[in-house]
Predict the structure.
Amino acid sequence: MRAIVTVTGKDHVGIIGAVCTKLSHYNVNILDISQTVLQGFFTMTMVVDVSEANEEFGALIQQMADYGTERKLSIRVQREDIFDAMHKL
């Protein structure tokens, strides 16, 4: 199963490394990644494969959100099919 991970917050050193390392602890594979910084605000979107994750998807969502809060970031994990459905007109 694939999922979309979005990360937003005030830019600071180490965001990409920290989030990618945290995902690797859950055995989540990053398939594609895009990031930008606009006037000091960081935004990153990743397509990830969670089919081999060592955590249930609901727990992964909560743990990544909690990790984001600790780092003063918003980290959201959504199933790809739900993300696609939300963004269709």
Remarks:
- The first helix runs from residue 15 to 25.
- Residues 65 and 85 are 22 Å apart (CA to CA).
